[in-house]
Amino acid sequence: MNARAEKNNGFLLGLVTGGVVGAALAVALAPRLAAELRRRIADAANDVGDAASRRYRDAGARVAGAVDEATARGQQVRDEVADAVGRGARGVQQFAIAAKTDPDSRRS
Asked: Could you tell me the maximum CA-CA distance found in the chain, to the nearest angstrom?
């Protein structure tokens, strides 16, 4: 029974020694691992925030460009319509003057 008791004692001694070494490593490495994990999470959050900010600025610039383009096109159309209305008004005015002065134009 002596050999069996020595085996059990050796197993228990190995178990306790492994537990102590494992606990010591966990205590020694855990703060560094936690700090590293927090740093990585903070860096990832900053990267996501920066990317979102960049995309927001890009979208704002595209919208501003589209608004400027639409405004310029609207002003161009407005100017073209104003010119057409002016030409039409001059044509009507010339026709009215001609109708008043030319008696033959009233017969048509």
From this structure: 145
- Can you say whether the dihedral through the CA atoms of 78, 83, 86, 91 is positive or negative? negative
Residue 71, CA distances (Å) to 5, 53, 57 in order: 94, 27, 21
- What is the per-residue pLDDT across 31-82, written as a single tens digit (0 to 9) for each? 777 778 788 889 999 999 999 999 999 999 999 999 999 999 999 999 999 9
Q: How many domains does the chain have?
A: 1
The C-alpha angle with vertex 81 and arms to 79 and 87, in degrees rounded to 5, equals: 105
Mean predicted confidence (pLDDT) in 72-99:
93
Q: In which domain, by residue range, is 53 found?
A: 2-106
- 8 A C-beta contact, residue 93 and residue 100: no
pTM reported for the whole predicted model: 0.47
